[in-house]
Write a structure and sequence with these properties.
Blueprint: H1 2-18, E1 42-53, E2 60-71, E3 75-79, H2 86-93, E4 101-106, E5 109-110, H3 116-126, E6 127-130, H4 142-150, H5 159-165, H6 181-193, E7 199-203, H7 211-228, E8 231-236, E9 247-252, E10 255-261
Parallel strand pairs: 3-8, 3-9, 6-7, 7-8
Antiparallel strand pairs: 1-2, 1-4, 4-5, 9-10
Helix pairs in contact: 4-5, 4-6, 5-6, 6-7
GO biological process, one term: response to antibiotic
Keywords: Antibiotic resistance, ATP-binding, Cell membrane, Membrane, Nucleotide-binding, Transmembrane, Transmembrane helix, Transport
Biased composition (Low complexity): 7-21
Length: 273
């Protein structure tokens, strides 16, 4: 009897194994969502900017209908020959000048219609400038030149901290005459970043320097951009510098005539000219 029951159970198990499963197939798992980098905050937007100097028959049209957007943390290089409008555009973005027509907004604030007092506050609180010539006070040390800015900024870096960011932590108490050209320019950069600006606007920062010294200055700007997230715009006629930019804009005759994104950026230390 037990043998008959065992045989019957074995036969039933074999039939169950052979029978097709009635369990529905597992639903395919959805692919993991593709992560897209968050959109960068729009810092500057310019629309239809023109700038005319002079009057009557001696008018010079420096800008001819510029449209431009700059985003938080971008590193942008403006290229073009002398007289192409690069410095004029930079001055308008920095609130040093106003357009003849068109509009420019900074984080939604219309700079083209701002009062002189509002532009002064904008420059003081949000923009760091670096020019070809260093504009340091000869009778003040590197630390004291930077401290001039920290005394009026709402949330400044310590002068020593700003100078350390540009590699001059051992030159704090040196006067400009005791510094090389590249070191003086880096003091100027430290002075510009000491107020923690959202934007750095640099007009030919390596124009008066040799290649090796210029690379040191660019390394300082590169580090500030990376560590502080500062939107950085450099204007230059040196095409080699454009290789370190995220985005390159070419200007000619007051217009942006070409734009390019660098798929592979070079570090400043890799540049040679």
């Amino acid at each position: 009897m037990r043998e008959h029951l065992h045989a019957a159970n074995s036969a039933a198990a074999s039939q169950a194994a052979a029978a097709p499963s009635t369990k529905p197939p597992a639903a395919p798992q959805p692919a993991p969502p593709t992560s897209t980098p968050p959109a960068r905050e729009l810092i500057f937007r310019a629309q239809g900017l023109t700038k005319v100097y002079g009057a009557g028959e001696v008018q010079v049209q420096a800008l001819r209908g510029i449209d431009l957007e700059l985003h938080a943390g971008e590193f942008v290089v403006l290229l073009g020959p002398s007289g192409s409008g690069k410095s004029t555009l930079l001055n308008i973005l920095g609130g040093l000048d106003v357009p003849s027509s068109g509009q420019v907004w900074y984080c939604g604030q219309d700079l083209s219609r701002a009062s002189d007092a509002a532009l002064t506050r904008f420059r003081r609180e949000h923009v760091g400038f670096v020019f070809q010539f260093y504009n340091l006070i000869p009778s003040l040390t590197a630390r004291e030149n930077v401290a001039i800015v920290t005394e009026i900024a709402p949330d400044p870096l310590e002068p020593a901290q700003a100078l350390a960011l540009v590699g001059l932590e051992k030159r704090l108490d040196h006067f400009p005459a005791q510094l090389s050209g590249g070191e003086q320019q880096r003091v100027a950069i430290a002075r510009a970043i000491a107020k923690r600006p959202a934007v750095m606007l640099c007009d030919e920062p390596t124009g008066a320097l040799d290649s090796a010294t210029g690379v040191l200055v660019l390394q300082a700007l590169e580090r500030v951009n990376a560590e502080m997230g500062t939107t950085t715009v450099i204007i230059t006629h040196n095409a080699d510098i454009a290789r370190m930019a995220e985005r390159v804009l070419w200007m000619q005759d007051g217009q942006i005539v070409r734009e390019q994104r660098n798929a592979q950026r070079l570090a400043a230390q890799e540049l040679r000219w």
